Amino acid sequence: MSIDDVAPTATTWTSGRIITKELVTPTTVRLRMHVDDRLRHWPGQHYLLRLRAPDDYTAQRSYSLASDDSDPLLEFFVERLPDGEVSEFLADVAEVGDVLEMRGPIGRWFTWDVRTPALCLVGGTGIVPAIAMSRAARHAGRPDLLRILAVGRSPEELPYGDELHRFGATVAYTRHAVDDRPAGPPTAAELAPLLDGIQRAYVCGSSRFAGLAEALLMECGMPADSIRVEQFGATG
Amino acid sequence: MPVTRGFVRRRADGPEGRLPPGQYDTGSGWPVLTAEATPHVAPETWTITVDGLVDRPTTWSWDEAHQLPTSTYTGDIHCVTTWSKFDVAFTGVSVDALLEAAGPRSEAAFVMAHSSTGYTTNLPLRDVTGGKAWVVWEYGGKPLAREHGGPVRLLVPHLYFWKSAKWISRLELMAHDQPGFWERNGYHDRGDPWLEQRYQGD
């Protein structure tokens, strides 16, 4: 799927029900939600979640999907940000059975076609779209098409750690030493072998992470126009 | 739609009449949102071209652009991801000054803004004329940072900020509208924050 092949698709607001809610760590929550008659999605796409107050004030934020299209539910993994009016609500207030306003899927650029050999260089909750891509790859029987280099502070703070290890992802801990790997960001020596045969790189994480990841990819010879980036700031 | 159980407004509305629907005041922050690798563009090699349906296709270098009359925008900006930022100041040159030199033809009705990265965004010509759009190289009196589109970005502050293309290099005048990068990828063709024109279908 090239950018020139995709037609704009209109989405409208609908509602989704929380089916499961899990506080994975004190600052992260995993939600699985049901949406009636939902549109199909590519891995990498996101949904809008909108909250409505009694005075009709609304707050909406974008959250990447962790689930692939074959999953009967939509899965989100949200970091609870200090003073984040939506993420705090999802972590602290929302309960199973609650209905939220939703719209999606959104974004047709940071998507993977499950055909192009790709690498995800992702950090923190930026790991979420790589999870959707890995699930889509497994579902298609082509896990060989996707490589993941996931970056987290420590094993306890790495989202989807078990699933990443099962997929065969390479993991770099920035503040935790493992066997012969000292704590620290990923290096060119770790990244370069993963790029063999790779035609597209997906970077997802904080703005700071994305800047470092882009520089590392280009240092390893990845052309700038083969890198797609999704970055997020602390927007609550 | 029904009220969300347990959700109440905690944020202030911001200055009276200045926060479009569905937006919040990001305060001193300025989130960076970019779809591509952030390029290194040197001022010495940067140029901007106005071409397409104009009488005099024109290219300005950094020095030539700086010899045009300086213009400053002070006001608010609004991102489709729902943050707004109040009382920002950008300095550069009005798009009107560039168009005056290039001479738009009568059939020109739309503009495609091009960045050196290949990013594009489409705008009606009337949204970049009449003192509504700038090509800017300063933010808050300092050189515009690379991650915010420096050395030079487009500024169309009355529309959602994806229309204010970073690393601007070309304004192409067209007779008919064509979708740009995000517009092909599901975003609205015009992007008026006061009408909440965020995505296709709004």
Automatic annotation (TrEMBL), chain B:
SUPFAM superfamilies referenced in this protein's UniProt entry, alphabetically: Oxidoreductase molybdopterin-binding domain
Alphabetized Gene3D superfamilies for the sequence: Oxidoreductase, molybdopterin-binding domain
Highest taxon listed in the record's lineage: Bacteria
Residue stretches making up the Oxidoreductase molybdopterin-binding domain: 37-182
Signal sequence residues: none
Residue ranges of the region described as Disordered: 1-26
Name of protein: Sulfite oxidase-like oxidoreductase
Species of provenance: Nocardioides currus
Lineage: Bacteria, Bacillati, Actinomycetota, Actinomycetes, Propionibacteriales
